[in-house]
Specification:
TIM Barrel; 9-stranded mixed beta sheet; globular; Lyase, Ornithine Decarboxylase, Chain A, domain 1; 25% strand; single chain
């Protein structure tokens, strides 16, 4: 469920007409619903109750500081994968003891930042990283709490570019070698082993891969405890998918996911962490764009928008589907037209949809891309010197711009011409 509905013939974000935002902000823009973000966060906390748990929002899905503050104020932890994301979490007021640091390439500088600023744990992904973290923590006279990310070699049955739990993926340590790596971790100064971490991929629409991975983690936890490790926290990652179409095929609900967690690892007495991103933010956001032209081509018509692949790269990068709907609700009897929906960038890949049935559109009409809150604005670029899309947050009947569209002067002034040119 989201809070983007037609009211009086106009698509609204909660109680705000998208036409009002477009008139003030211009297009394209991203808009997020505070009510939807809040609801989706609470779905996970309710699903895991009464287990001791923390829901750590995966910042990589939507990193605007205002959104992080909204979730942080609800009690969410944060899952970060860079020093920049760590800084965003802290700028949003999230304390260090609610921040989990993931990622395969943590630098020593990032380790120092998190150790001195406060951290809940590092999810360590390799032996070289483990040794580097030990050196950094020891040099600071501090102790780094860690889990080790194990790779369970489970096929998540998702897009190849977002699968992370198979043996050929770059993430984690093979689960068969976990006990020896944990033994090394326990012997290193400045390291405190507190748990186990696993994450098998993103946009999973079946619970079976989660079950296979979590059963392996449960067995490993028992083995590690027998080896003398005080395993008291399980970080089970994220990855639960969302419905990108309004079809009848819906991914599992958070309540079903929570029941699976309780069934597979709930008897271990561990605190449970999960790191959802997409399911919290995905359907909480839209990308709104204007029609520049309707072009009649050879055997097809093109809907040319002012949004482009640099604003929403998922269709170009992943062949991802986003429902595309008019902001002004068409009459019930309106027959759909069929368009290739494209942007203005000079790339054939700047295509959002091919042969997509959409209500007949005209120059200046507004369209909205649904389910664009996750991996939309965060993956945007200024390709073709197109300014980054502004972001808007709605709560009830009011809205605020939470990231301004940069001016061309601001973009150009970042470049420097050397004196010798």
């Amino acid at each position: 469920m989201d809070h983007f509905l037609y009211k009086n013939g106009t698509l609204h974000a909660e109680d705000v007409p998208l036409t009002d935002i477009a008139a003030q902000v211009g297009t394209p823009f991203y808009v997020y619903s505070a009510a939807t973000l809040t609801r989706h966060y609470h779905l996970f906390t309710e699903a895991l109750s009464p287990l001791p748990h923390m829901v750590c929002f995966a910042i990589k899905s939507l990193s605007n500081v205002a959104v992080l503050k909204l979730l942080g104020d609800l009690g969410a932890g944060m899952d970060v994968v860079s020093g920049g994301e760590y800084r965003r979490a802290r700028a949003a007021g999230v304390p260090g003891d609610r921040i989990v640091f993931s990622g395969v390439g943590k630098t020593r500088e990032e380790m120092r930042l998190a150790l001195t600023g406060g951290i809940r744990q590092f999810n360590v992904e390799s032996e070289p990283e483990l040794r580097a973290l030990s050196e950094v923590a020891t040099s600071l006279g501090l102790t780094a709490p860690i889990t080790i990310r194990v790779n369970p070699d489970v096929d998540a049955k998702t897009h190849a570019k977002i699968a992370t739990g198979k043996s050929e993926n770059k993430f984690g340590i093979p689960i068969a070698r976990a006990r020896e790596v944990y033994a090394e971790a326990a012997s290193l100064p400045g390291i405190e082993v507190i748990g186990v971490d696993v994450h098998i991929g993103s946009q999973l629409t079946d619970l079976a891969p989660f079950e296979a991975a979590y059963l392996k983690v449960a067995d490993l936890t028992r083995q590690l405890r027998a080896d003398g490790h005080n395993i008291r926290r399980l970080d089970l990652g994220g990855g639960l998918g969302i419905p990108y179409t309004r079809s009848n095929e819906a991914p599992p609900l958070p309540m079903d996911y929570g029941a699976l967690i309780k069934r597979t690892v709930g008897d271990l007495g561990c605190e449970i962490e999960i790191e959802p991103g997409r399911l919290i933010s995905g359907n909480a956001g839209l990308l709104v764009s204007s029609v520049i032209y309707v072009k009649n081509g050879e055997g097809r018509d093109f809907l040319i928008l002012d949004a482009a692949m640099n604003d929403l790269v998922r269709p170009s990068m992943y062949d991802a589907h986003h429902d595309i709907v008019p902001v002004i609700e068409p009459a019930a009897a309106t027959e759909a037209a069929v368009y290739d929906v494209v942007g203005p960038v000079c790339e054939t890949g700047d295509t959002f949809a091919k042969a997509r049935p959409v209500a007949p559109m005209a120059e200046g009409d507004l369209v909205a891309f649904r389910s664009a809150g996750a991996y939309g604005a965060v993956m945007a670029s200024e390709y073709n010197t197109r300014p980054l899309v502004p972001e808007v947050l709605v709560k009830g009947d009011h809205f605020a711009v939470i990231r301004q569209r940069p001016s061309f002067d601001e973009i150009l002034n970042r470049d420097t011409i050397p004196e010798w040119l």
